[in-house]
Amino acid sequence: MNIIETHNLCKQYGSALRVSHLDLAVPEGSVYGFLGPNGAGKSTTLKMILGLVRPTAGKIQVLGKRMDSSHRLEILRQVGSLIESPSYYGHLTGEENLRIVQTLRGAPEKNIQEVLQIVRLDGQSGKKVAHYSLGMKQRLGLAAALLGYPRLLILDEPTNGLDPAGIQEMRELIRDLPRRLGITVVVSSHLLSEIDQMADHLAIIREGELVFQDSLEVLHSRSRHHLALRTTQNQEALRLLSEKSVPCREENGYLILPLLTDETAARLTCFLGEKDLGVVRLEERQKSLEDIFLELTGKAASL
């Protein structure tokens, strides 16, 4: 079952189409990465899914129900979210902040200590939030989102501004939620390296358009090993290899071949030598996930 589905989702501001015909499918029980460069339309999409922004066109289904005015409150009772930055009262402690949220949500009082423990703030319950570090404030925002133990948790750039230790801590918390609490997590980011270490499914958008959606495993399969060959006469080498039915193409001054055994590669270089073609370089390469991300989102896009 998909816990979120969007169909032909669009959002237009003036003449600018910020989200364009988006079809998302978020599997239940997954950590779903929502990835794209800054300004790609991620936050706008998440706000539409939460009913905070009205779509220009298209449909949104959350937890099997259409997100509209008749179902919105029913859906949101089962959804937790942290969009942009957490809200809090700085003069109150973390526990006192959560007590306010607990009262508003009608959640059991015992949940306060439980979520503080989950986000590892149980040792800071008496400290005023104004004195929290940025990472602690982010974890408090996550605790507030978890307070009602939602079926779905939506996090918008939760590691923004955190130091490496804070990023790792937040990453571990998010990755553990489906297994520990059965919560489906949608997490947005502009950093592929972050999503790669958290998610098992992902969508990539560019200028509001979906350019990739599948499991992380499928994205990794695009970064297969290959050989890069450079000779003294690439065009002639390309012709000879094509005649021998060796899959080959030219790219940036190199001939790109599939990964070959050492024995086959040695025979190939001997063959080219016999044809008076000098092998200048033969190297094994693997396209990185960042390279794939840049190809999908455009070379000029900001990471």
Give the strand order of the largest sheet, numbering strands 1, 2, ... along the chain. 7-8-9-4-10-11
SSE topology string: EEEEHEEHEHHHEHEHEEHEHEEHEH
What is the name of the CATH architecture of the largest domain?
3-Layer(aba) Sandwich
Number of strands: 15
Structure description:
With 303 residues, the chain is α/β, with parallel strands linked by helices. It folds into two domains: 2-221, Rossmann fold; 226-286, Alpha-Beta Plaits (2-Layer Sandwich). 36% of the residues lie in helices and 28% in strands. The chain has eleven helices and 15 strands. The chain has helices spanning 42-49, 72-76, 94-105, 110-118, 134-146, 164-181, 192-196, 216-221, 234-243, 262-274, 289-297, and strands spanning 2-13, 16-22, 25-27, 31-35, 57-62, 65-66, 79-82, 152-156, 184-189, 201-206, 209-215, 225-231, 249-251, 254-258, 279-286. It has a six-stranded mixed beta sheet with strand order 7-8-9-4-10-11, with helices on both faces. Strands 1, 2, 3, 5 and 6 form a five-stranded antiparallel beta sheet that branches. Strands 13-14-12-15 form a four-stranded antiparallel beta sheet. Helix 3 (94-105) crosses helix 4 and helix 4 crosses helix 5 (134-146). The radius of gyration is 25 Å and the shape is elongated. The model has no long low-confidence stretch (mean pLDDT 89).
